From TrEMBL:
Domain HTH araC/xylS-type: from-to ranges: 671-769
InterPro entries assigned to the protein according to its UniProt record, in alphabetical order: CdaR_GGDEF, Homeodomain-like_sf, HTH_AraC, HTH_AraC-typ_CS
Name of the protein described by the UniProt record: Helix-turn-helix domain-containing protein
Organism listed in the record: Paenibacillus residui
A Pfam match: GGDEF_2
Membrane-spanning ranges: 12-38, 308-327
Length: 772
């Protein structure tokens, strides 16, 4: 439906905005009013309807239980029961007793529970007697054959037959229907028992009236037939479920939270998104009637109105979009024709500048024409701004030797509008920029780019002759100087001007002057020669200039590598803990380099060799450093650009690698180890274990132990063990093998050999001599 180039979004939005203001906003207001007023009325009516339903349900259930309570009180208040309690302990042959039993059975059969009762019986506390409407018998026999229960449920039921009870509802229990005197189960029923004691106001009642309610019928009775109610329940204030029906299945804690958070007569939505309605019972003060509400069904009329409102808004929105599209397309047709004509004649004479106006189709066409002109100018400015970047990239490739043919260089230069005389005297000056270590981490990449751009601008302004500038590396700027016969200005004069420009607090600069060449295709030779001059740079902070006249090779005069004797000297000073002398030796080497005017490459080679030797010495005793740490030390050294930075680098590295041991801390650790040796001399005491504990190598720990204790580690262990062995020889009757094992020797022979070595006699002779 939408052809390529046949639609204008600006016109579409203009029409759609008008439609939105005149039609869509009133529609939105009307729908909002409908939703927040009419829908709210429907929701309130639905909530009131639910409250009426719950109140009727609560009143009906209260009447049922109140009627049952009245019947139970009437039965317990009958004179027959009072008379029977007086003769309950008489012989079963007592005629009056038997008549009273049968009258009680008839009264039990007449209890009205609204169709909920399954059975009822009287449970006598002080007599082995249970009476229901069918029989009377002993308690054990009754609950085994007439009312059989599981042992756990029977025990739970009997626990209620104590203290005063008034309409106590028990937990549900299952009664199994069996033929008399058999164990065959025919069916089972879930019951809830209701208990009432007599006399009413005593804590030591004589009889309990128990009415068994069929739980299935009770669930049917408390069920609400309204389609928005998915479940009902009767709860007490503690959250215990008396009975429940439907899909409501929550634990006691959840019910308790709902009762505390809910208000009677209002809908409460819990964390699971379930709507709950709560109504207090008039039958018992601590009872609540709870129903689970399906909000989707209850609020269905409100939901339909909301959906219709949104559908209506969507319809109006789509209709407005289609109308706006149709009108904008019809209006855009003449504009499209003019646009096509302008595109086919884009090389025509440039019209006057465009000024944005509003009006009829002709004004729109003028705007479109002005837009094309504006875009053309913007493109021209963009291309013009890219020329310096492209030309600098072109010059970089020439200096790197990628373009060496004169014809290809001329062709590429013409493509990027880079005019140059093919025959001219030119010299390449390489400027190496090395940022000081103190500012390198503080300068971002953007800041360094701005510094380089500022440097290029200053060079172009200060140079009296034409120069070409290009950055061949991140730290290297190439400056091509043109020598003019009419001006006595050459590469040395250019280098002197650069020297004044490059005095900066951020970096150290070194200038290398290359050979002078006559053609542009030979510039890579001049660049390579200037790059080679930079290898003679030193470590002074001022700007250095190197050319074939002042460059010299000092490698023969100053060795850049450590000799074997110097390496051994470093290891010996490390072993003797002469750490200050290690740093002083480096300072002396650097002072010698300053006197001999050593190059930065020579000094860096020598310093790398020294740092490598330091690391090898440290690794013999310390293992907490890793390869990334050592690599970082070399990177830090490589960043140094002056003598002072190298001194600071070695001073910081020396502080990291050669930590002076604290005597007090070391003595404290050794004291703990000595105490452990005395207490566990019978165990394996490897020197590697204690060396690792103190963060040392085994050799370093052995030397430290002898320095602090005065004895070698092995001899000290042997003396501690022998001291304990002599005490066991004199104070106990243990065998030699047992003593050897107690003091940490695995065999009798090794123990005897060590004992003879230090005491001059065998353990057996030592015992016989010193026990006399």
């Amino acid at each position: 439906m939408i052809k390529q180039g046949s639609f204008n979004m600006a016109l579409f939005w203009r029409f759609f905005t008008s439609y939105f203001i005149l039609i869509l906003i009133p529609a939105i207001v009307a729908c909002t009013f409908t939703y927040f007023f009419i829908v709210r009325l429907i929701e309130d009516d639905a909530e009131k309807l639910n409250n009426v339903t719950m109140r009727n349900f609560a009143d009906q259930t209260d009447r049922t239980f109140s009627s049952l309570k009245t019947n139970m009180i009437n039965l317990l208040s009958t004179p027959n029961l009072v008379s029977f309690l007086q003769v309950a302990g008489d012989s079963p042959d007592n005629q009056q007793r038997n008549e009273l039993v049968h009258s009680l059975m008839e009264q039990l059969n007449k209890i009205d529970s609204g169709g909920l009762m399954y059975s009822a019986y009287l449970f006598f506390v002080h007599e082995d007697l249970v009476i229901d409407f069918q029989t009377y018998t002993g308690k054990e026999f009754y609950f085994q054959h007439y009312y059989p229960l599981e042992p756990a449920e029977k025990s739970a039921l009997f626990s209620y037959f104590s203290d005063k009870q008034m309409m106590l509802f028990t937990e549900p229990h299952t009664m199994y229907q069996k033929p008399l005197f058999t164990n065959q189960v025919l069916s089972s029923y879930s019951h809830i028992s209701v208990l009432m004691s007599y006399p009413f106001n005593t804590r030591s009642p004589e009889v309990y009236l128990v009415v068994n309610l069929n739980e299935d019928k009770l669930r049917e009775h408390i069920g609400i037939t309204e389609r928005w109610v998915t479940g009902t329940a009767i709860l007490d204030s503690s959250g215990r479920v008396i009975s429940q029906t439907g899909s409501m299945r929550l634990d006691a804690d959840s019910w308790s939270d709902i009762l505390q958070a809910s208000q009677e007569g209002s809908l409460f939505v819990n964390e699971d998104g379930q709507a709950v309605s709560v109504m207090r019972s008039h039958f018992k003060d601590d009872w609540y009637y709870v129903s689970l509400i399906d909000l989707q069904t209850l609020l269905q009329p409100a939901r339909w109105i909301s959906r219709v409102s949104f559908v209506f808004l969507g319809f109006v929105l789509v209709l407005g979009s289609l109308v706006s599209y149709y009108l904008s397309r019809r209006l855009y047709t003449p504009i499209l024709e003019i646009k096509t004509g302008l595109e086919s004649h884009h090389k025509a004479a440039e019209p006057k500048p465009w000024f944005p106006v509003k009006g009829n189709d002709l004004d729109v066409i003028k705007q479109f024409s002005g837009l094309l002109i504006s875009e053309n100018k913007e493109l021209s400015r963009l291309v013009g701004g890219m020329f310096p970047i492209v030309q600098e990239h072109f010059m970089t490739k020439i200096l790197l030797g990628e373009y060496r043919d004169g014809l290809s260089i001329e062709y590429y230069a013409r493509e990027i509008d880079f005019p140059y005389p093919s025959q001219a005297v030119r010299t390449v000056l390489c400027i190496e920029i090395q940022y000081y270590a103190s500012v390198l981490d503080q300068l971002s990449e953007t800041s360094r780019s701005f510094l380089m751009a500022e440097l290029k601008e200053n060079i172009r302004k200060r140079m009296p002759v034409a120069v070409w500038l290009c950055q061949t590396r991140a730290d290297l700027l190439a400056c091509v100087v043109h020598s003019e016969p009419a001006k006595p200005f050459g590469p040395k004069e250019a280098a002197q001007i650069l020297q004044t420009i490059l005095v900066q607090p951020y970096y150290k600069a070194t200038i290398g002057i290359g050979k002078t060449v006559d053609t542009i295709e030979e510039l890579h030779i001049s660049y390579a020669h200037a790059l080679a001059m930079l290898r003679y740079k030193g470590l002074r902070s001022e700007v250095e200039i190197y050319s074939p006249d002042n460059a010299r090779d000092d490698r023969a005069a100053w060795d850049s590598f450590l000799s074997v004797q110097e390496v051994n000297k470093i290891f010996n000073r490390f072993k003797t803990r002469d750490y200050p002398e290690l740093l002083q030796a480096v300072y002396e080497l650097l002072e010698e380099g300053v006197r001999k005017n050593a190059t930065a490459f020579q000094v860096k080679y020598l310093c790398s060799d020294v740092l490598n030797t330091w690391i090898r010495a440290v690794e013999t005793e310390r293992n907490e450093f890793g390869i990334p740490f050592y690599s970082g030390l070399f990177v830090k050294l490589d960043r140094c650009v002056t003598w002072e930075e190298i001194r600071d680098c070695f001073r910081e590295t020396h502080a990291l690698l050669f930590l002076a041991e604290k005597p007090d801390a070391r003595r404290g650790q050794l004291a703990e180890i000595l105490e452990y040796i005395h207490e566990h001399c019978g165990e394996e005491l490897s020197i590697e274990r204690f060396a690792e504990r103190m963060g040392m190598s085994a050799g370093h720990f052995s030397r430290t132990f002898k320095e602090e204790v005065g004895e070698k580690y092995v001899e000290y262990i042997a003396k501690v063990r022998l001291a304990k062995a002599k005490r066991l020889l004199l104070e106990t009757d243990m065998k030699i093998d047992e003593i050897a094992e107690q003091v940490g020797y695995w065999g009798r022979n090794s123990f005897i050999r060590i004992f003879r070595r230090y005491e001059g006699t065998t353990p057996a002779k030592y015992r016989s001599i010193h026990r006399k």
